[in-house]
Amino acid sequence: AAKAAKPAQVADEVPKLVGAGEGFAAAFAKPHSADEAYFSLAKGQRHFEETVQDCLEPVSSEMCFVCEWYPEAWPLESKDRSSTATFLAGLPMQAELELPPAPAKEHILVFADRGGCCKRILEAAPERRVGSITFEERALAELDAEDLKELVTQEKWGLILFGTGLDLPASNSVDDIMPVIDDLSRTWMELVKLVARNKKNCGRLGVLSRDVFTDDPKKHRKAGLRLEAASSLWGMSNTMRIELEEAVHLAYIDIELKPSDECLKRVASELFCQETFGQNTVRILNSGRYIMRQVQCKHYQARTPSFEVPSSGVIAITGGNGSLAQVFGLHLLEMAERKNREHPGLPPVSFTIKLLSRSAVVRDREAQAWAEIVKKAATLNISVDHVKCDVTKAESIERFIAEYTPNITGIIHTAGILQDAMLPGQTWEKFETCLGCKSRACIYLHDSLERHHNPDLG
Ligand SMILES: NC(=O)c1ccc[n+]([C@@H]2O[C@H](COP(=O)([O-])OP(=O)(O)OC[C@H]3O[C@@H](n4cnc5c(N)ncnc54)[C@H](OP(=O)(O)O)[C@@H]3O)[C@@H](O)[C@H]2O)c1
């Protein structure tokens, strides 16, 4: 059934995925084991994405995917591993499932948080599943690659749990946030590199973060920018999972900011349920368990008011001499042109575009696109110019934001440097270069804009 489905049909099924097995699961062939049964849910999503690749034409106008969270209730893991099979057997697909073999007790290595969540999670582990727990409590900054190697290779770990991302930085100052991001990203990268080299030393690899995905404004107001400190672990984990292949399962689990005992019990269950482990990005909140699905954007766009280009002020584009910046620059000008045409009674759009880069030099490959921007801007009487600003440096961003406050009406962040490498060839230096002008720059921008009020910044 899955093979025959067209993207649109699968997409239509996605919103019905409320509660496991309802609608979506029923669309797939009868599985023979609990593992296979669960996999079919995740596989449905993969199939959807893969099929879309083959059918770009009809869906090209909906090709910007949105991530959405679907509730997927799952039973708490039992000591004998029977709960998933029993649960799935009761679903509409009525699979006749073999019970999995009795589980062995596992050795567990935990990079523990200071707040004690990891301890509470493991105290709630299903009975008879934990053989030993080694808590590594040194600060990540104190652990080098040799220390990590010793830890990973000293035992055949059933589970390695990276829980340090649960600790929020001490304050919302960038001076407190940046070292946490660096320590988490560096250690997680080194750890997964080691696991990839020593696959027999690790059965499952779990990584935890705390409400990185929340869109609850109250939580953001309360916790502030530091809530995002562990967010790079998610993107890293997605690419790492591909390289680890099936040899080591990697699960990314985002948990509630202030988890209840029941929430932590669910996290423990998630870590020990082998059928579901690593099949989805999971959020475990006090309100339940949610899995991430990519969905087509059209329904979301239909509910959102269309973007209106600012009429005045300064719009900054970081990475301003790059390819993407030329696309955005021209698009903004075309929107300004349309706004002028549609509102002849209003003063013409008069924003200025500042294109930020380290060199402020237009390279040959962008020359034609830039010439087009200059031409269009001249017809609209709009000013566009290149400005030197290294967005990896807080002081450069601060200088720019301070200079144009309170007139900044938009910022598009496209600065980026590619440092592609497979895990064995990846280094912290490369990683830092990439993170620097992406996430680090975002945090500096956010921080600076919190101090400099720009009332019309959309
Ligand atoms: N092009 C696409 O289709 C596409 C699609 C998805 C994602 N992306 C991502 O979007 C980003 C931009 O893509 P692109 O194609 O426009 O790349 P690009 O042509 O290489 O442009 C990136 C620009 O960023 C500038 N830059 C690098 N570090 C900077 C820093 N510290 N401060 C200020 N500016 C800096 C560079 O100019 P200087 O060296 O002069 O600073 C460069 O011209 C990349 O990270 C890329 O991975 C691109």
UniProtKB/TrEMBL annotation:
Residues 314-451 form the Ketoreductase (KR) domain. The keyword Signal does not apply. Pfam families: KR. It comes from the Eukaryota. Keywords: Phosphopantetheine, Phosphoprotein. Signal peptide: none annotated. GO terms for molecular function: fatty acid synthase activity. One of its GO terms (biological process) is fatty acid biosynthetic process. PANTHER family: FATTY ACID SYNTHASE, SI:DKEY-61P9.11. This is Ketoreductase (KR) domain-containing protein. It comes from Strombidinopsis acuminata.
